[in-house]
Here is the input.
Amino acid sequence: MSDFIEILDPEQDGYVTYPHFLEICALKINSKSEESKHEEVEAAYKLFTKGGDRPIALHDLRNVATTLKENVGDDVLKVRFVLDAR
Here is the structure.
């Protein structure tokens, strides 16, 4: 824990800056096994498809946006959907 605190607040200012936060995130991500990373991606995918074994569709993106209370129009979702599919 002291290593994390050293990275998060090296100047001991009592707060965390964004770059220091990113360092911790990188450490956490890199410390995970490939199997663990794969499991997390699978779990996220199933959240989008509600457990289905199918491609993520536009209506799935709409559902996620609604769940997150994000007011995102279909025009934006479609652009993101097409760009991400490439």
About this structure: Residues 6 and 52 are 43 Å apart (CA to CA). Residues 1-31 form one domain. The radius of gyration is 18 Å.
